[in-house]
Structures are given as C-alpha cells and as structure tokens.
Amino acid sequence: MRRYTALGSIAEKSNVIKIGDLELDKDAKEVRVGGEPVKLTATEYGILQLLMENAGKVYSIDQIYEKVWNELSFAPENTVSVHIRRIREKIEINPKEPRYLKVVWGIGYKIEKI
Prior knowledge:
The chain is of the alpha+beta class. It has one domain (16-111): Orthogonal Bundle (Arc Repressor Mutant, subunit A), CATH 1.10.10.10. The protein is 41% helix and 20% strand. It has four helices and six strands; from the N terminus they run αββββαααββ.
C-alpha cells in the first residue's frame, strides 16, 4: 500500500510541463526558469499555461483572449500583446530575441518546442 501511495505522488508530478529551462507546475501554479521562481500575474500564468500545454501550436490573439479571459474578444490585440511582452520580460534572457514565446507574424503566438 505504501508503494502505491509513493507511486501516486510521483505521478502527480506529471502536472509539471517542462520545455527547456522553462517549467510550469500546474498544481502549485508556479513557473520557474532555470530552477528560479518567476512571479506571474494570474492572467500571465493563464496565457503561459495555455501555450505550454500546446507547445508548437499557434494561437491567434482572439483565441488566447477567449480561452484565458473566458469571454468573447472585442479588439483584444493590445491587451494580449501587453501581457505577452510582460511574460517575455520575465521568462526570456533577451525578450527582444525570445527563445520560448514566439510570434508567428500575421497569425499569433506559440511556445517553441525545444
């Protein structure tokens, strides 16, 4: 019985998404880069979680807005762009040349599979 419990707690760790040095713990609602904690707002966390859970998939600004804010989008470009910029400033070594959070011009954003 103890082994089962121990294995169960290990399985719970599968709620951690790791891409390169970027790590998102869905249970603890924490983000780390290179093992160091990163403070994100709830909205920033929601955007990052959406993109990390679907690494490689491109989301339009409207899709991001509707999934994270849970409401229909009405000209959300600036709102989403500001949050993306803030996330990049917190997780990227050089936000102007992002390693993780990429723009796909004319389409939207994605987390790069590394």
